Amino acid sequence: MLIGVRNVAEMTPAQRKVHDAIASGPRAGVPLPFLAMLDVPDLANAIQSIGAAIRFSGALPAPLREVAILATAAAFGSGYEWDYHLPIARDLGVEETTIAAAASGRSAEAAAPAHQAIVALCRDAVLNCQVNQDRLKELVERVGAPAASEVVAIAGYYQLLALFLSAGALDHGITDPAG
Description:
By secondary structure, this protein is mainly α. About 65% of the residues lie in helices and about 0% in strands. Helix 7 (about 115-130) packs across helix 9 (about 145-165). The longest helix is centred in the C-terminal third of the chain and has 23 residues, at about 145-165. The mean pLDDT is about 95.
């Protein structure tokens, strides 16, 4: 592992403080992306704070949030993020057709029009490195501007996590996206 730290015993006091703060928060543990970014504890803390806001206090309903995360993870090829969020999505009742659409990128196959718009926007953001304005307009019409803004944030944030996973040699890639 060229960046980050996995072993708690090897952490500096500043790293341990951030690690423990993450572990005692709403995640109830320290997901791997945060271990990969602990070389700069203040940065890791700031990044995890954004993620906590997205996951635990956003305007986007939880099932839609998980659709956005899955679509972003699949487009990026982050097996860790896919595997971490797939059971969450299923527990929230996200339909298998939407999960398959997030995995394949065939947004038209998603169960609901809002899911279709989320999958399409997240894939565009990852694969084309920009937000298509027509897709964004459709998403705003379906879920409102605050929720659409959170989808944009998710598409960027989960790419950032995937990059840290890759850099920290902590991601295994997607082997079975329908999982």
